[in-house]
Design brief:
14 strands; six-stranded antiparallel sheet; six-stranded parallel sheet; 383 residues; single chain; alpha/beta; Beta-Lactamase; Rossmann fold
Length: 383
């Protein structure tokens, strides 16, 4: 089945290649749009439905491989025929079909490139995607391996592997705040695939209340590094994060590097410790109140017991005094058989009523009994 090709998009960070490709394709009768990098390509495709897309493999601001993955995740681009331009075909065997491309052209002299582009267009218009032999790189037989390129590619792979293994989220942004690189930790933090993260506006992942703070950090940065404090961490998908932002200025462009550290587990531990501390302080306060109340009651009991003790001692003294007085009147008392005087313990003789009054507190009233009245005052008794 023949496919009608009308619109072509060329994506390459080399402006010379863009001009040559655009001129060549327009001479062939195609409507051509160009983009200087992956981000620009996504913007172009917002209002340009391309039938064939030529993508440079090695580009800043989203590589060709990642751009292909993004395009294949877009429903409107799933049927587009994608051909990769590779300047590293001799140094690295590229499995372009693994990331969604349909063909791969080794970059070489433009005269040869013209023929390779015609081949790709014929395949795109003819039998479709299945026409390209698996992993065939068109024109790779006419290029030669470069040792320095191999070393650079090796270093790049090692660097990307290392970034994907770190626990902190690592992102690279344009000066406008669009994501052009995100490691595996960043994808986990945001809960999105790399294809969904790339080209997205970084500030959109934060709440409206925090976007102003984030925008100031990543787009208005005028120093080398900025960081957010732990007192007011930012929130992403319910996670608390700290941001370290650095500006990287190169010869012709500027990038913003963002490292996001998820401090949610530590904050949860701190909150649990704070909660336990509050409970402990509350318990100590309650126990302190209870001890104060118990101490107050104990003090009252001590005072009451002391009062009772003093009362008991006073009663004992009174009893002892009373007992002493009783003992004074007990025992053997010498008394005169005639006058009835009593001799005290000092040898003095005292009237009976005087002695008893002194030792017992008894008071006497003097009177005469009937018998004595008869004996002493018979005349009064007769009356």
């Amino acid at each position: 089945m023949t496919k009608l090709i009308r619109k072509i998009l060329v994506v390459d960070n080399n402006k010379v290649v863009l001009r040559l490709m655009a001129h060549m394709l327009e001479e062939m009768g195609y409507a051509v749009r160009t983009a200087i990098d992956g981000l620009s390509a996504i913007d172009v495709l917002a209002d340009f439905q391309a039938d064939v897309i030529f993508v440079d493999l090695v580009m800043p601001k989203i590589s060709g491989e990642k751009l292909c993955r993004i395009l294949r995740s877009m429903p409107e681009q799933r049927n587009a025929y994608i051909a990769i331009f590779s300047a590293i075909a001799a140094e690295e065997q590229i499995d372009y079909q693994a990331f969604g491309a349909d063909a791969c052209i080794a970059k070489g002299p433009f005269k040869e490139l013209r023929e390779h582009v015609r081949t790709v267009l014929d395949r795109a218009a003819g039998a479709g995607k299945q026409a390209s032999p698996s992993r065939e790189i068109i024109g790779s037989d006419r290029i030669f391996e470069r040792e320095i390129t191999k070393e650079l590619l090796s270093s790049k792979r090692h660097f990307e592997i290392a970034l994907d293994r770190i626990s902190d989220a690592f992102l690279e942004l344009t000066p406008e705040g669009k994501v052009v690189y995100a490691n595996a930790a960043a994808c986990r933090l945001f809960g999105l695939s790399e294809e969904k993260l790339l080209s997205a506006l970084f500030t959109d992942f934060f709440s409206p209340e925090q976007r102003g703070t984030v925008r100031k950090l990543v787009t208005d940065i005028d120093v080398e590094t900025l960081s957010t404090g732990e007192d007011e961490p930012l929130c992403v998908g319910g996670r608390q994060v700290l941001l370290d932002v650095a500006a990287v200025n190169e010869t012709s462009q500027r990038f913003i590097v963002v490292v996001m550290r998820d401090i949610t587990p530590r904050k949860q531990v701190e909150e649990e410790l704070r909660h336990q501390q509050e409970n402990l302080e509350k318990l100590v306060a309650e126990r302190t109140v209870a001890l104060i109340e118990a101490n107050t009651k104990l003090q009252r009991d001590i005072v009451e017991r002391q009062k009772l003790y003093d009362q008991k001692e006073e009663l004992i003294r009174e009893l002892q005094d009373a007992l002493a007085k009783v003992k004074t009147l007990s025992g053997f008392l010498p008394i005169c058989s005639s006058c009835k005087k009593i001799r005290d313990d000092k040898g003095y003789w005292q009237q009976l009523e005087a002695y008893l009054g002194k030792h017992s507190g008894t008071e006497f009233s003097h009177s005469v009994c009937p018998e004595c009245m008869k004996k002493l005052y018979p005349e009064l008794d007769e009356k």
